[in-house]
Amino acid sequence: MGIYGALSSFLGTGVEFIEALTIILAVGAVRGWKSAVLGGLSAVVVLGVLVAIIGAPLVHIMEVRWVQLIVGLFMLLFGIRWLRKAILRYSGLKSLHSEADNYEEELARQQAAGEVAQGIDKFAFATAFSGTFLEGLEAIFIVITFGLSTKSMGPAVMGAAAAFVVIALLGVALRKPLSAVPENTMKFVVGVMLTSFGAFWAGESMKVAWPQGDVSIIYLIATLIVMSFLLVQWIKAALKKSASVDSAQTGVSA
Amino acid sequence: MKALKVLWGLLVDDGRLASILVIALIVAFICAQAGLHFIAGVVIWLGLIVSVWTSVGHQLRLRIKLKK
């Protein structure tokens, strides 16, 4: 019973930790590791405090649907904005080489919103915090459910702790290779990830029946990648056609 | 109110994209409440595609118009 509880908890929470890690890695690679890691760790601390104070009744007190709705909407709106910008850059509607200008523009906007303070990117912090908080909360529910149902809370907690360590080590290992990915590619990946997770969570909060549960996130990711590819091809062809019409008209008038 | 305006400005670049997305979410919510849970998922899925496609398509039209 103990081994079953530990293994179930390891696998169940492992999936949630991977989802949280995906968000932290994606946000960290684009907006900065310090704020992303700090956001993730803060969520872990808050959850730890909640569990220490409330314990198992947390399952009944915390309304996951509201957390899913708020975090889902935030990630969806934020993610789709990045996805759109990445598509515009890939297709040539926005310059790939105007990163410095964009950075200045973004920084000015964030400073106007009081967003950049003492080196902390509030958006990166909030995204990593909210994603980790939601996934962590789900992981806690899994541990409590498995622990209580198999009457082996100790092994279930151990299983979750082991999953946390394994996934954290995976994150450390993946951090460096991710930094080598070109900026627009990374922003595209982050946009796709946040949009997919956000849409999934927003849907979950509304009791949407996603086919095969969490696997739907992969379907959403695949859809967005295919759609982006088709959009980029369509725009490139349209721009090319427009340019050839322009040059033909110039030739006629000359 | 000011905080909401700031958040809206930071999150939303294109009103066209955001409004289609929000409408899709509202329709999905209504579908889910009516017991059409699978349809609600399809509405969100379609909402993502239509909103991005419309927004980027609009940018393309603006660019072509600007060239002329």
Give short descriptive properties of this protein.
heterodimer; A: mainly alpha; 9 helices; elongated; B: 68 residues; mainly alpha
Structural write-up:
The complex is a heterodimer of chains A (254) and B (68). Chain A has a two-stranded antiparallel ribbon with strand order 1-2. The mean pLDDT of chain A is 81. In chain A, 41% of the residues are buried. By secondary structure, chain A is mostly helical. Chain A has helices at residues 2-31, 33-54, 58-61, 64-91, 99-112, 122-149, 153-179, 183-205, 216-253, and strands spanning 116-117, 120-121. Helices cover 84% and strands 2% of the residues of chain A. Chain A is elongated, with a radius of gyration of 22 Å. Chain A has 9 helices and 2 strands. In chain A, α1 packs antiparallel against α2 (33-54), α1 (2-31) runs antiparallel to α6 and α8 packs across α9. Chain B is mostly helical. Chain B has helices spanning 2-11, 15-33, 37-67. The termini of chain B are far apart. The model of chain B has no long low-confidence stretch (mean pLDDT 85).
What's the gist of this structure?
By secondary structure, chain A is mainly α.
Percent strand of chain B equals under 5%
The biggest beta sheet of chain B is recorded as: none
DSSP helical segment count of chain A:
9
Report the mean per-residue pLDDT of chain B as an integer: 85
Structural class of chain A: mainly alpha
Number of strands of chain A: 2
Query: Structural class of the helices, strands and pairings of chain B?
Result: mainly alpha
